[in-house]
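Query form — protein MFS transporter

QUESTION: What is the three-dimensional structure of this chain?
INPUT:
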Amino acid sequence: MTSSQTDRNRWAALYVLCAGALMIVLDATIVNVALPSIQDDLGFSASNLAWVVNAYLIAFGGLLLLAGRVGDLIGQRRIFLIGLAIFTAASALCALAQTQEMLIGARFIQGVGGALTSAVILGMIVTMFPKPGEQAKALGVYGFVASAGGSIGLLSGGVLTDLISWHWIFLINLPVGVITGVLALRLIEPKPGIGVGAGADIPGAVLLTAGVMLGVYTILGITEHGWTSNRTVGLAAIAALLLGAFLVRQARIENPLMPLRLFRSRNVTGSNLVMAMIVVGMFGLFFLGALYLQRILGYAPLEVGLAFLPSTVVMGIVSLRASQPLIMRHGPQRVLVPSLLVTIAGLLLFARTPVDGNYVLDILPATLLIGLGAGLSTPAVIALAMSGATPQDSGLASGLVNTTVQVGGAIGLAVLATLASERTGDSTSAVALNSGYHLAYLIGAGALAVAVVIALVVLRVPRAAVSESAPAAAFAAHAG
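ANSWER: The structure tokens for MFS transporter are given below.
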């Protein structure tokens, strides 16, 4: 095979990986649009309806770190394909569900498949594209999928639910999953893992999975039970003990499941903190912003998706076209900080939206700024997060980034929703609801301001721009 054919295959493999990632990312928001229809059809109560989302999030968030490390041990392509098969089969079960129990159970299985699929994608991308220039471009493509997938999910969920039925939000995954799996087998080169003996820590795996799952379960219950309830405090303490026991074990055994050396890298630790703050801000837009459009302005689900479409287009343009040359010319940190400031400006504009808001004057400018900021910041922060990991730990680093997104999103949404509800109180007026949303946008902007400080103080990158031909090591040399 010629070098040009090999190069084409690598880029084709990237698009296959991103198709798998997009299918998983879409699922996070496409289901939210369909929840009212699911509730009416299957007779869910308001409290039980949350489990359609929570069952997925608990499995997904709880298994990401473990899945990433298992990919390092037995092969990342193998884990990707196993996860894709589970996710696709579970999607069929969700579509066929005729009872509440069947749908919730299928959603949990879907979360398992989503975790396995998502956890290793970034690791495979940085392995396939070791040169900094190519890697930055590839991460720009992935960054678009990661950042724009939420708004694409709102649009597609509105279309499928309004025009056909909620069953189709799951059925659509079947052809996508099968085609992605077939193409992955043909295009993604199988590479052996480092071996089960390098980290087959079964007790550690149990502690990690139980601790993270219980932690996610606790976070998801905060909105209903409160931050200081006995339930929240007790479950959080148990989750902390499980994770603490896991970390102690990893520090003492010879072949740990999660080598703690990864966290010595300032870029790995700092970038994941920045990513968590970004997710809090973005959740403020996509979830509470969608509620503002529906509850205050009276938008239908399809109209909500269309309202966010310009933001998605901007994200796509800057992620795919602008992020790579800017990161190569100025370095990821110098791209990250201004893009965070642009996103903050968009959230502050959203924090002044009136109850009789006009789309063109009050909403569009804010969504365009957030699209621009997210389209540049996501590839930059992912590049920094992955730059501190060795090839042997790339799956773990990939799983860590995805765990940060999921757990950070769960915490962020719990915080924002709780504080917005507390400000609104018992009032059902549009003014009171909007006041709560405004507080959430401001908190999201504050989280991004914290991200700016972390990016300036913690992250370390080369002063000079990394040349196109420089080896990947030049990019990672300043990771620690």
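ADDITIONAL NOTE: Residues 201-254 form one domain.
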